[in-house]
Amino acid sequence: MKYPNKPISIILPFGPPGFSSRVGFALQPHLSEFLGVDITFEHITGGFGGSNGPRAAAKADPNGYTLLMGTIGNIALLPNIFSDYGIDPIKCFTPVTKLAVTPNILVVRPGLNATSLEDILKLSAKNPETLKFHGINERSIHMLEFKSLIAETGIKLRSVKPEGGSEGAIEAIKTGEIDLTITTGPRLLEGLRLGEFVAIAAISDQRAAFYPEIPTMAELGLNKIGGGSWTGLFAPKGVPNNILKEIFEATIYASQKKTVIQELNEQAANIDLNHSLKDALDFVKSETERLRKACTASNFS
After folding, report:
1. Domain of 109?
2. Given pLDDT bands bounded at 50, 70 and 90, which one contains residue 238?
């Protein structure tokens, strides 16, 4: 029987404001156009680091009709730090392709009177453990980025118990409840334009076109903090190869649409696909190993 012949469901582990959800919504109509069936989304949120979505996707029938929008956190990070995850993403999923990337941004509240990493280090040195930071989630990529920052610079910060995710952190920065946070570029773009917080550094491989004035951590001499966030499309292990290739071709078709590229650029994200199914698998293995080393170096577990 020809694939597909009924709607395809994509599990989203994070709510609609999230990076992976934004990418999914942008691609949806074009994936549907290429495959000739409806593409629907199922929000299965919650769990440490967005772990509930992958758990549910791993149990789905391997027939190509249930897919997962996985992220750097719940695919490559959690296996290194979450002993109760219950799944091994490498063994439970077949990566179809990475879809998009976005920088993560270190921001501070305007009233802190800091506009550079040097300013923050000086403030911390003068009053150790008075600067309060919010790592979004105890097992998030953003918490690892903070742990890496601490390990590389020796900065003394006071951790505030994460609650409310990225939206909670952004609100806490606005109210002055916390001093620093790190989260994905799409969540920060509007607030930066409005001056609701001050950008210090981008965690990305190079300066982003939509954040050209923000230096990267590497430019500031910090080389172990990583390269931002990514999201990708995953299938439960066991989906036939011909179906995987059809889904891969659909993502190529959708990602080349100018409207998709523009929409994601306006949300501080870039399309970034793997070259093949093998390339996607190699990428996920490489990212998992990279984050394992980062967790060890920063004592993050």
Report:
1. 104-220
2. very high
